[in-house]
Design a protein that fits this description.
By secondary structure, this protein is α/β, with parallel strands linked by helices. 24% of the residues lie in helices and 37% in strands. The protein has three helices and eight strands, in the order βαβββαβαβββ.
């Protein structure tokens, strides 16, 4: 018997990050990484990353959403998610890691592991990003 799929197209529309200082986070993504802020108010900013929205949301406002299911925002410094970006070359991995470092990110130098070249950085609020190139 065939297993039932989601009743909707399987696609991610939006990823929301809780942030402590919205202006600092905007500066990191806009000025540091070169992304465009599509929409912004005093509590949030939206960035269109190739069709998926990255929303930077004030941490207290973020809490009002996760509390609906009995949760609270993760403590600063605790990682529960890794956002991965698939680069087109090793050079692109190095360039993005360097750009993040220049913007003030904490970075881990890229390394090769079984044909996958990857590096990591965290944004000002500790959200972990993986940048990788799979040579196979």
């Amino acid at each position: 018997m065939r297993q039932r799929r989601w009743p909707m197209p399987a696609a991610i529309s939006c990823v929301t990050f809780p942030v402590d200082d919205l202006q600092k986070s905007i500066a990191f993504y806009r000025d540091g990484l070169g992304l465009t802020i599509e929409e912004q108010d005093e509590e949030h900013a939206s960035i269109d990353v190739d069709g998926v929205y990255l929303v930077l949301l004030d941490r207290s406002e973020f809490g009002t959403y996760v509390e609906k299911v009995g949760h609270r925002p993760a403590a600063r410094g605790a990682s529960e998610t890794i956002i991965s970006y698939f680069a087109e070359s090793r050079g692109d991995v190095d360039a993005l890691i360097a750009k993040a470092k220049g913007a003030g990110a904490t970075v881990a130098a890229a390394s090769d592991d079984d044909g996958v070249y990857s590096g990591y950085f965290t944004d000002p609020d500790g959200h972990t990003w993986e940048v990788l190139f799979d040579s196979e």
